[in-house]
Amino acid sequence: xxLGKLKEMWKLNRSTPNWVxxxxxxxxxxxxMLTYKYxxxxxMTVWSTVLLDCTFDGKLYDFYExxxxxxxxxxxxxxxxxxxxxxxxxxxxxxxxILQRFAGLRAVDHTLMMVxxxxxxxxxxxxxxxxxxRIMDFFQVDSTTKAWSTFLIVTCPFTFLGIFVSGQNDFLMxxxxxxxxxxxxxxxxxxxxxxxxxxxxxxxxxxxxxxxxLLLVEKNVIRLxxxxxxxxxxxxxxxxxxxxxxxxxxxLGIGTSNSIIQxxxxxxxxxxxxxxxxxxxxxxAVYFIAYxxxxxxxxxxxxxxxxxxxxxxxxxxxxxxxYEFYRRIYLIPFLIILMAIHRRFWTVNVLLxxxxxxxGVFLSLYGAFTAYLPCINVGIMRRFGLEQDVTQCRYPSISxxxxxxxxxxxxxxxxxxxxxxxxxxxxxxxxNFPWVARRIPLPEYQCHRAVYWIGTAFMALVTAxxxxxxxxxxx
Length: 475
Description:
This protein is mainly alpha-helical. The protein has helices at 3-9, 19-35, 39-57, 63-69, 87-92, 94-102, 111-138, 143-155, 157-165, 170-185, 189-202, 207-217, 221-230, 233-242, 248-252, 256-264, 278-292, 304-320, 334-341, 346-364, 378-383, 398-406, 410-431, 434-437, 454-470; strands spanning 268-271, 274-277. The chain contains 25 helices and 2 strands.
């Protein structure tokens, strides 16, 4: 190949993300995957191999009992959802299952086996990006905006937490929902309902968005109810089959469905006759607006509302509900797609989304789990002579560090951050509501390249502080 062509291949593009930027992010992500093993990531890996064991032995009915026996070193003793969401991950993990089953190598004891398992989520991220770009093509988003939207989806702090830190299977629900929305935009409602049925079968977070979308596209109440019920068939059938399976009821008692209900009514204000939930009030408002909108499947601009209804209920839920730190990943990628559709507000949207992501991560630090020292991969640290006794660390998490350094100001900082987070959420929902977006006289500004890197820089800082805590650098 000619020298000139090589130079052109490696040229740093100044108008769109370049390979150096993706490489820098990939190195940070790989570093976290190698040195940090969050409890849920370990559990998902173990449970996927247990599912393969049960399939191989013909004992699927005993899956929850096998999980409870915990023969492979899982961090948790109960799987709090039905195993439908583990099937794709189990297929991906067949290579490490073979090593575990027939060579006696436990996956949780070998870093490379754990990294292989976690690359399943990276694969899902690739599929999500592919269908997100197809959706943006449907809305005729220009190539530059589409390129930066892709970069934001991949590098968003919520993505970083959900995939590379926690290793949770929530991203499978996101991927199937993105595919479902793509088919809905193509007017293929059967495929939409099929993928949504799988999405909510194990972790029904997207049921809030599903109800809003159905209220938007279907005004006949009977047909609307039938479509909604059809998406619940896999979940109901699974529950009927496994209702009496050993440890099934015990496992689901601590599972996602119960936590969703509890979190929905957790934060309330006093009202006439009792308490009123912020989440439920917000959802009712969104559902009312969705049903009132005149939707036309043949009108491209009306389909902007589909993306909006995929974002608004989730944004309201995560603004007011209590949840695990990685759950905000459910806002991605639909929020980014919505921003790309409203290109005129791109810079304002990117600034708001960056503030939302950074504040979201900052607030999650108060839950301690985002940077919890017992999750450090001691094995790889020992290999490089960097092993520390985590029980002797002065600050076992960044949450403890912030509490010590901020002192009495800790609660004030948390309150201010939460208030701004909710305000930013409201602003994003306001200016990106399609009817409003067409009427706001906001001028278009050029977005500086550095803005796109704020979120990743913040995650790099969080990671650095975590390891400084690990090495007892802070006094």
